[in-house]
Design goal:
197 residues; alpha+beta; two-stranded antiparallel ribbon; 7 helices; 6 strands
Amino acid sequence: MSNDARLPDYELEDLRIVVSPTELKALFHPLRDQLLDLVLERAATVAELAAAVGRPKSSVAYHVGVLVDADLLTVVRTRRVRAIDERFYGRTARIFYVGQVAPEQVSVMNNLLLEAAAESGPAHEADTLRSIARHARVPRERATEFWDRVFELTRQFSQIPRGGDTVYGFVAALYPTEYPSLPEIGSDGERSSPSES
């Protein structure tokens, strides 16, 4: 694995907003998600990707094609090998951000928390899972500011130089809940219900 601080080894946009049905369908597929994560480290050929995910080259080539058609992957360079041009694929953006989508498109998107819960099971059993959950009643603007900081932390996580033997997962979520809250205390010392504030 590369220990180069500049990841990946090709140029790409920092952020791309995805909203079309084609982009969403391509993005929210377990194998294609793995392929996109792998090329965040460096550009790779179909053969390298197939070996990494343990799937046939023909299957991986199909999924790479879907990602290319959705403009989520692109050929970043080629190499001539025994009279054949070998293509190296890379992401078109470091981060794919789902923009405003139609209600009928939501069903296409995976619940990343459910996936992370399933994926983190072995780490929980081995007592190597690090997790935290908090609830706080805050204004929407403050929640948005906080999410922007989490988003930046995610960007930093994806740029940590590669090394070691373990691939770590990172998941974050910010969502409204029906969690209980204490009433506010007004300037006159009177308590009001949270819905009145």
